[in-house]
Amino acid sequence: MESVKSQSYEVHLDELAKAAINQHIANKNYSKIFLLVDENTKEHCLPIFKEIFDHSIDSLLEIKSGEENKHIHTCLQLWEDLSNFDGDRKSILINLGGGVLTDMGGFVASTFKRGIDFINIPTTLLSMVDASIGGKTGVDLGSLKNQVGVINQPQMVLIFPKFLKTLDARQTKSGYAEMLKHGLIRDKAYWEDIVAKADFTDAARIQKSIAIKNDVVLQDPTEQGVRKILNFGHTLGHAIESYCLDNPNKKTLLHGEAIAAGMILEGYLSHELRGLSKLALDEIKKAFLTYFDKVEFTEDDIDAILQLLKYDKKNSHGNVNFVLLQDIGNAATDIKIPEELFSKAFAYYKE
């Protein structure tokens, strides 16, 4: 399957991915090869990786899985591990895991010795279609998502759809939310295709989603303009995700589950402010509620979630900036929201 060319690297799939990593390692003469895993990818994905990888791993680094471990203390552990195992500027870190692991592994590599090479091998659908493109690395600050990080590109990203067989259904559906988002912001035909028939592991669709995100990123690598459309559903979605992560009385949501709710809410705001038709809005709500359970919000929950909006990374000069849809496949950025519309959006979500 054809590779996707990004800024300074390529995303390779399946057999091309296998050939690419083995040739790259053979040519580069790295002083140390480090492999980063969590307990899940160590058990389920490492055996598959060893069949793919023709070279020796010098040191295996392991972290605990989960968003709650995506913080600077885990980075400190990894920087110390790299140093204790004699890592130097000619080392490479291979990140084998989902978006939490590749975000954090990329950040650790980008800052250790002022930057060493890294390769990302995403093992979840979410990380394949989202975190694999764009070079965003980083960690959370408390429960606030991705507050500390840098944009830095990997040597390559390798997609092996066989890793998806190691996931439970909930994790796979979480990634499908990002695929649906790609259709909503950029490609109406793609949206209609993946809404009409769900296939969470289809390699051609994975490649299509990667290509859509890549096209946006190539136009705006540092998120000054059009790249912001990739944040549709994420302004409220990240606030919902952070609130549920930090509240012991709420079920912790996967990223895709939170942004699915966020896309319905921001779809309503799009209808009110950017002319998204009621028919399209209802279609969006129906599609997401087909795959994702409705999240229960009390008035206190909503107030707390709205308070978290001030920490969103897209904010500028004290303003909370939203991405909204003008139509399915057509998004607009930097939209300010009248405060009274938030309660109406949550009321529509609850209907």
TrEMBL record:
Catalyzes the conversion of 3-deoxy-D-arabino-heptulosonate 7-phosphate (DAHP) to dehydroquinate (DHQ). The keyword Plastid does not apply. Keywords: Cobalt, Lyase, Metal-binding, NAD, Nucleotide-binding, Zinc. One of its GO terms (biological process) is chorismate biosynthetic process. Pfam families: DHQ_synthase, DHQS_C. Its cofactor is NAD(+); Zn(2+); Co(2+). This is 3-dehydroquinate synthase. GO terms for molecular function: 3-dehydroquinate synthase activity; metal ion binding; nucleotide binding. Its EC number is 4.2.3.4. It is an enzyme of class 4 (lyase). InterPro entries: Dehydroquinate_synthase, DHQ_synth_AroB, DHQ_synth_fam, DHQS/DOIS_N, DHQS_C. Residues 62-173 form the 3-dehydroquinate synthase N-terminal domain. GO terms for cellular component: cytoplasm. PANTHER family: 3-DEHYDROQUINATE SYNTHASE. The gene is aroB. It comes from Flagellimonas chongwuensis. It comes from the Bacteria. Residues 175-315 form the 3-dehydroquinate synthase C-terminal domain.
